[in-house]
Design goal:
Elements lengths: L12 E6 L4 H11 L5 E7 L2 E5 L2 E2 L4 E8 L2 E8 L18 E7 L3 H10 L3 E8 L2 E7 L7 E6 L7 H10 L7 E4 L1
Parallel strand pairs: 1-6, 2-11, 7-10
Antiparallel strand pairs: 1-7, 2-5, 3-4, 3-8, 5-6, 8-9, 9-10
């Protein structure tokens, strides 16, 4: 039986994300022990119109992306103490899972479904013409859910990174983007 109208019905999980206490150690673990890489680093991100629990925030963070087959692995490094999901009650999970991500075509519909399920939007903003919300689905054993409506007007950054990971020879495990 399909669970239409539920958060899982919005799409499949395409990403596992972590906010490690030691970013460099996490990159080393994923690349050396797990064999996942190379990670592509984007530094100094601040989402346009970024809000934390409905209030504007100046939070800035770095992220590194790699692929393990079809699953994207994201490592996040907060750069400041502004309110965000990377500090405080939602902050570093040590080395545990911080959030999962699903891609959607209609962010407004995703918001409606999340609201109907009682999931609180804790972060929202835009990255270029992509729009993103992070929702807290409540006190169950789950985690935060990132919901991303990707831009359709530029290069497919995820596909570029996935191709680089598929052909990775183990060299240069952390590569800067932009």
């Amino acid at each position: 039986m399909a669970l239409t109208g539920k958060i899982a019905a919005l799409g499949e999980v395409m990403q596992l994300a972590f906010v490690p206490q030691d970013f460099d150690a996490a990159v080393a673990h994923w690349t050396k022990t797990m064999g996942v890489g190379p990670f592509h680093l984007i530094e100094g991100i601040h989402l346009d119109g970024m809000k934390y629990k409905g209030e504007p925030t100046g939070a800035v963070f770095d992220l590194a992306l790699a692929y393990w087959g079809d699953i994207q692995i994201e490592l996040i490094r907060p750069r400041d103490d502004h309110p965000s999901i990377y500090r405080g009650e939602y902050g570093s999970t040590g080395n545990g899972l911080h959030h999962v991500c699903i891609l959607v075509d209609d962010i407004a519909e995703a918001r409606r479904v999340c609201e109907a399920e009682g999931a609180e939007v804790v972060i929202e903003g835009r990255f270029g013409t992509s729009e993103v919300i992070y929702v807290d689905p409540g006190t169950g054993p789950g985690t935060l859910v990132e919901i991303l409506q990707q831009a359709k007007d530029g290069p497919d950054l995820f596909a570029i990174i996935k191709a680089a990971c598929a052909a990775w020879d183990g060299s240069e495990p952390l590569r800067k983007l932009g």
